[in-house]
Amino acid sequence: MVIQEILRLYPGVGFTVREALEDVQIRNKVCVPKGVNTWIWPIALHRDPELWGPDAHNFNPERFSNGVPGACRISLAYIPFGLSPRTCPGMNLVMMDLKVMFSLILANFSFPSRLIIIMFPSLMYF
């Protein structure tokens, strides 16, 4: 969840370019004619309050507790590495590197236990 939230706020892709294969009408306001390239800026998409809620600019890993579909209104709005067949080929490597990096960082910390166990030796009679 933490990695997904970091990638939502700071995606690895600067922008994604797609070509319209047919005329597309967006919210009955914008018409994208066939053959026109559109640029998608994930940083703006990932911080849109209409998609992610009023706390879209805040770091909140719990938003991914139910996966990507539960985190935002439209699950296809989460594109930290691009979308569909043109997804970044290094995505799996980067995800593995992030997990290793976090495990190495956490290995240098110690977390004290709040539970104190006092053991009393049992008396045995023979």
TrEMBL record:
- Keyword Transmembrane helix assigned to the entry: answer is yes
Question: Which cellular components does GO assign to this protein?
Answer: membrane
Q: Which Pfam families match?
A: p450
Does the keyword Transmembrane helix belong to this entry? yes
Q: In which family does this protein belong, per the annotation?
A: Belongs to the cytochrome P450 family.
Per UniProt, subcellular location reads as: Membrane
Residue intervals passing through the bilayer: 100-120
Any idea which UniProt keywords this protein has? Heme, Iron, Membrane, Metal-binding, Monooxygenase, Oxidoreductase, Transmembrane, Transmembrane helix
Recorded hits in SUPFAM superfamilies, A to Z, give: Cytochrome P450
| Primary location recorded for the protein, binned into one broad class | membrane
Which organism is this entry from? Heracleum sosnowskyi
One annotated GO molecular function? iron ion binding
Full protein name: Unspecific monooxygenase
